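Working notes for the structural subgroup meeting. M.R. asked for a predicted model of this chain before we commit to crystallization trials. I am recording the input and output together here so anyone reviewing the notebook later can reproduce the run.

Input as submitted:
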Amino acid sequence: MSFPFARIAAHVATVVPLRPFDQQLDRMLDLAQATPLSVIAVAGPEAAEAMSGLWRRGYPRVEAARRATCPSADELCDVMLIAGYERAIPAAACVCGTRAMLGPRARVVIDAGHMTDPDERLRLCGLLAEEGFRVQRGAHLAPEIVASKAV
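Returned structure, recorded in token form:
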């Protein structure tokens, strides 16, 4: 039994309700290939909920990200999770504004589930590509978009 399914089974067995955001966070962590040792930055309107979910899962190295504009940004983050944006332009601005926090092999996972219009997701992929991020073809078809810094 894979880990996310084991977690769901444990929730069902203990009669603890599983919130939809928990499943979304599980998918984002799987896509980012994050481990509890990863340094994870979280940004977006649902960042607080994502941070508390990460702490409940045993991820101690979590930080909030708003902007990383100083020249001494640490570039230590392994994973950036962006949660809760409904439009492409603010989501892309958030990613670009915090890019200095990302390490050279870092992954950015953007929750695109709130973007009900497929054109918004496609626009987000285009904006990220324009800013120098690698995005896979067809990424706009998934509920989460994975990007990485072009090296």
